[in-house]
Structures are given as structure tokens and as C-alpha cells.
Amino acid sequence: MKTARLVAALVCCMVAAQAVAAIEQTVSAARLVAAARTALPTDAAHSKVTFTANVVGTPSDAVVPAGTVALHAHTLAGRWPRARVAIPIEILINGKVVRNETVWFAVTAKQKGLVYGGNAPSGTPANKLKLASGEIDLATVNGVPVEMPAQLADQRLKRGVHAGWPVLKSDFEAVPDVDKNARVVVHVQYGAIHLQTVATALQAGDVGDAVPVLVEGAEKPVLAQIEAKGVVDIAR
Question: Which of 32, 115, 157, 210 makes a 20 to 30 Å CA pair with 186?
């Protein structure tokens, strides 16, 4: 009698398991990852860049109700490329969203480019820098790389840099036509009299700006208008 009851109980369990199996199905992690990869930009515009996108962690299979499965990967938002990317996936059954999953990727985007060949302090003129060819990972770079040294004409560093760092446009600023504490040529006009001397600029500026300068031998600064690079004019 006990044996019969045990058999009956096992049969009931098997029937229940089959019933559950009939109303559920599994979407494999591999399928989720494949769907997520379709949302990663192909970047045809970056033909010289080598991309890798490796799955972070171990995604799990998704158990969902029975029915026709469709996967929708959301469009990637934010900066691209970047070192970590999350792709949200909607799992639809018979056209209705029943579950959301997220697949993470670790991304590299490597290309050849300019790197600093040595350390340099802020204020160093671009033409005094040692530059070299190296590998740049665009996924970890926060800025736009400089493609050619010629792009840095009349520029200087606005921050200190270290050897091996990528050369970025945001590292630089334009050298002013007259820099603070720089020696400048001064043209002095007093009626029909024209004189030339030298002075120290007490403020930086560009052509058209008025800056205070201390003429050699003078005790007080005067205002002078910048008329060319390194040249100011004092009209009387």
C-alpha cells in the first residue's frame, strides 16, 4: 500500500514538472550576448581602429514563459568608444516584453597615434615637445587625439604631461600674441615723433587688446595696445 502511494506521488511530481516545462522556456546567455553585440557600433568611420568587445562576467540564461521569443537590444547611448559598455536587452514573448537583461562589455579601440616621448610641464611650447608614434586606446582616452604635429602650431601645453600619454587637442592652448612677463617691442608715437623701446608685459593678450606694460627704466606701467605678435603701441 505504501509503495503504491509513493509511486502515485512520484507520478504527480513528474506530471507537475512536465506542466511547468510546458509553460516555460529558456533563452540562453549566448543568445542574449549575440543580440547585445548587434547594438555595438560597427564604426566604419574608424577604419584604422582595432576594436575588441569582451563580455564582462558570466551572463545567466533567462527563463521566460512559453511563446515566440524576440530580443530587442537598445541603441548604445553616450560616448563611443568607451572602456565599459552596458547593452540593455528586452525579451519579448508574442510581442510583449516579459523580462529585461543587461549585457556588459569591456571595450578596447586601439590605433596608432602620437604620444609624448618625455615628461613636460605646463606652458611648454608645442615645438619644444618630444613626440613619438605609439598605440592609443580610444576607449580610455578622454579627448580628441592630435593627428599631426603641424596641428600644434603656435600652441603650448596647458597642463603637465608624462611620457607615453596620448597627445590630445585638449592638452593645448594658443600662445597669446603677448604673454604675461614677456619682453615686447614698444612703439611710442608723440605727435610726429616716433620712438621704439622695449618693455615687460604685465598681462597676456592678443592683437587689439590693451595691456599694461612696464617700459625699461620707468617706475610705473602704462597701457599699450597690441598691434602684432610681441609688439605694442603707445600713442600720445
Answer: 157
